[in-house]
Write a structure and sequence with these properties.
Elements (H helix, E strand, L loop, with lengths): L2 H10 L2 E8 L2 H13 L5 E4 L7 H5 L6 H27 L12 H27 L23 E6 L7 H10 L4 E6 L9 H26 L11 H4 L36 H5 L3 H7 L1 H12 L3 H16 L2 H4 L14 H19 L8 H8 L23 H10 L13 H18 L8 H36 L1
Antiparallel strand pairs: 1-3, 1-4, 2-3
């Protein structure tokens, strides 16, 4: 090739910048500072490992990427909130779980997800844009010595697009920094045309991505006699069972499982064993140690067998003569503080669970008893009146009444599984108040309140008399209808 041809080739070659090679980190950092102080801003350094302080040495300003992420994330938040407010509160008003139409706490999950999504997109694509990506080649690769940038050499690059760039000036400046190798970075002479197979592969990929969309659109507008295709079969046909269903997973075929022995629910064992059973455990220890062991097993170890044994023992004790019942040291006083709040809770629970048989007044003439008598049920055992003397506190301790509510007696079932522990003691307190209300003396009422109390008693008696007359008329009408 003659000199003229070489000159034309050099003129046509694009110059991208100037590169200098260094052998140590210190020499590289010193050169970076010299270049920065000279006013060059479009520079870069290439090292085989991270070099602390090189950003400051080059004068690189903080990236704008965090601001891009912030703007993209805030945009996602606004889009999510506006979308949900429009959909749920304006375009199609729909109450979900009793929440208001515009419920910001309920909108947070979608807003959070869209914020993260757009912020991640902003970080990803913002990084590409700030770095000028994608780049299919780097002009630095035209120099074979640059391969050592991943091994044991350090390179400093000054871009030709810098407004202060002057080839001779940059070369002299880099030479003053002590670099042994300075070279001009020129354009890669490889072909710039994108290979045609790349377009072919890209076209096939686009066409393949449309196939699922076409299949979905086709299935939405057509009918098929074949069963649905389940992509995730185990999710469409979950082996999970509802309560009271049969299952083959266990030998007893029951889907509902009892607690593992020893399991104690949070807050379940906050009370003493006396309160849990209604029995004075310390006194029982002195007279019947084996029974105390069963109590501990039943209430402390959640042992179903021990609970069954204790229930049988209680039922046997209640069915035995009075002398046997006297050997059970029941708790005499209610362990809870009896106040207006406890009595109100007891009245509510009594009305829910007890009044259907014992009546609201506790005399044993509840709706269930009235119905049983009206149909002459042969196996019906009338419920006891709460106002008989044998059930007063001096003869029937509070602990025994609590045990009766919990474990049942005769045909009355136990309510320990339905009524909470403190609510059962609240019922005991209300029953005692109900008993005292029937035998209260006017001598205990202050003179200033006697007139009001007498008027209230008269009104109550009149109301009870009216209710009794209506009940008698209803009973007579039923008998007449049956006859």
């Amino acid at each position: 090739m003659d000199q003229k041809t070489m000159s034309e080739t050099k003129i046509e070659t694009t110059v991208h910048g100037m590169m200098a090679e260094f052998t140590t980190v210190d020499s590289l950092l010193s050169a970076c500072r010299r270049i920065r102080d000279a006013g060059y801003t479009k520079t870069d350094a290439y090292t085989p490992f991270p070099v602390h302080g090189i950003d400051k040495a080059l004068g690189i300003k903080p990236t704008a990427l965090p601001w891009i992420c912030l703007i993209a994330g805030a945009t996602g938040t606004c889009i999510a909130l506006v979308m949900q407010i429009w959909m749920n509160s304006i375009d199609y008003k729909y109450i979900i779980s009793g929440k208001p139409y515009i419920s910001l706490p309920a909108f947070i999950p979608v807003a959070f997800e869209l914020t993260i999504l757009l912020a991640s997109f902003g970080a990803f694509f913002g990084m590409w844009a700030l770095n000028g990506l994608p780049k299919f080649s780097n002009p630095m690769f035209t120099d074979p010595r640059f391969d050592r940038a991943t091994d044991d050499r350090f390179f400093l690059y000054v871009d030709a697009s810098d407004e202060r760039y002057d080839a001779n000036g940059v070369r002299n400046l880099l030479a003053d920094t002590g670099s042994d190798y300075i070279n001009e970075v020129v354009e890669d002479d490889s072909p710039k045309e994108v290979p045609k197979p790349v377009f072919l592969i890209w076209g096939l990929a686009v066409a393949a991505s449309l196939v699922p969309l076409i299949c979905i659109l086709t299935m939405r507008v057509t009918n098929s006699s074949k069963p649905r295709f389940h992509v995730f079969f185990d999710m469409d046909f979950s082996p999970a069972k509802d309560a009271q269903q049969v299952t083959s997973l266990f030998a007893d075929n029951r889907s509902m499982r009892s607690d593992v022995p020893g399991t104690v629910a949070r807050g379940q064992m906050e009370e003493s064993l006396d309160m849990l059973t209604g029995i004075d455990v310390e006194a029982l220890t002195m007279s019947d140690p084996p029974r105390v062991q069963r109590l501990v097993r039943a209430y402390m170890l959640a042992d179903d067998e021990a609970k069954a044994e204790e229930k049988e023992a209680v039922e046997a004790a209640e069915a035995a003569p009075a002398s046997v019942m006297d050997t059970t040291p029941w708790v005499e006083k209610n362990p809870l503080t009896v106040d207006a709040e406890l009595l109100a809770q007891g009245q509510q629970q009594f009305a829910i669970y007890c009044s259907v048989c014992h009546g609201m007044d506790g005399y044993g003439n509840g709706l269930v008893n009235q119905r049983a008598q009206s149909i002459n049920a042969p196996t019906w055992v009338p419920p006891a009146s709460m106002h008989q003397e044998t059930l007063y506190a001096d003869k029937y301790p509070d602990g025994k009444l609590f045990s009766t509510i919990s474990n049942g007696i005769r045909k009355m079932p136990g309510y320990a599984g339905q009524i909470k522990l403190k609510d059962r003691w609240a019922i005991v307190a209300y029953v005692r108040a109900l008993q005292k209300s029937q035998n209260a003396s006017m001598d205990l009422v202050p003179e200033s309140e006697k007139a009001a109390v007498e008027a209230a008693v008269a009104d109550a008696k009149a109301e009870l008399k009216r209710q009794a007359e209506e009940a008698e008329k209803a009973a007579a009408a039923r008998k007449q209808t049956q006859s």
